[in-house]
Amino acid sequence: MAKNKELFKDVRDKIVALHKAGMGYKTIARQLGEKVTTVGAIIRKCKKHKITVSLPRSGAPCKISPLGVSMIIRMVRNQPRTTREYLVNDLKAAGTIVTKKTIGNTLRHEGLKSCSTRKVPLLKKAHVQARLKFANEHLNDSEENWVKELWSDETNIELFGINSTCHVWRRRNAAYDPKNTIPTIKHGVTLRMIPPQTDQSFYPIWFYTIQMHEMSPDDDLMFL
């Protein structure tokens, strides 16, 4: 567990002086109002390193200041698709030179992870109601009616970037936040073959109907 406070140098020197005078850990702790473990740690450090001041920390110091960390966290929170390269250049303009790996480690330390965007249909309320209406109208259709549908196909239109290479910085359980998703737009085509309404069984002609879900200018390129 990390220490919550450090004693001043004069107090440490006094502990060491009292110990050299022949006093024990408990007596020194009782006289100075400190813990026995604290007194013991200071005396053992003095015996090992011959000093009472705090030793320099191990490892390299943080390259990004707390203010810089807050800045990149705020930027990523507002724009989850911000790239590491953009953050590197932004910090470089502010006078801090770091690598993309350092940026990634900093964001992961703050609980953010680089994940692929979840694909969700870009629907308006009108589209949802139209689909629900279609489903209710054909809810009781017979199996023979559905057999008439021979072939259907969809074309995926990527208007918001390449879906396969788009990543966002997000926290856990935030996959479907609107900022962390990418809308998908699809063009649907269905081919159905319907027999003519006639009593002549030898009638050889079949009618083909193509049902296309087309987008109109009023739909703002939404998924129909």
Task: Describe what this molecule looks like in 3D.
- Residues 189-194 and 196-224 have low confidence and may be disordered.
- The protein has 224 residues and is an alpha+beta fold.
- It has helices at residues 9-20, 25-32, 36-49, 66-78, 84-93, 100-109, 125-137, 143-147, and strands at residues 113-116, 118-121, 149-157, 167-170, 181-194, 207-212.
- The longest helix has 14 residues, at 36-49.
- The relative contact order is 0.10.
- The radius of gyration is 35 Å and the shape is elongated.
Topology (elements, then pairings):
Blueprint (H helix, E strand, L loop, with lengths): L8 H12 L4 H8 L3 H14 L16 H13 L5 H10 L6 H10 L3 E4 L1 E4 L3 H13 L5 H5 L1 E9 L9 E4 L10 E14 L12 E6 L12
Helix pairs in contact: 1-3, 2-3, 5-6
GO molecular function, one term: DNA binding
Protein name: Transposase
GO biological process, one term: DNA transposition
Summarize the structure.
Helices cover 38% and strands 18% of the residues.
> What is the straight-line distance between the termini?
58 Å
**Which residue ranges are poorly predicted, with pLDDT under 50 across at least 5 consecutive positions?**
189-194, 196-224
Integer average pLDDT: 77
Q: Radius of gyration over alpha carbons?
A: 35 Å
The general outline is elongated
Number of helices: 8
Order of helices and strands: HHHHHHEEHHEEEE
Beta content: 15-25%
Please bin the fraction of helical residues: 25-40%
For the report, how would you describe the main beta sheet?
4 strands, mixed
Helix/strand-derived category reads alpha+beta
DSSP E strands, number: 6
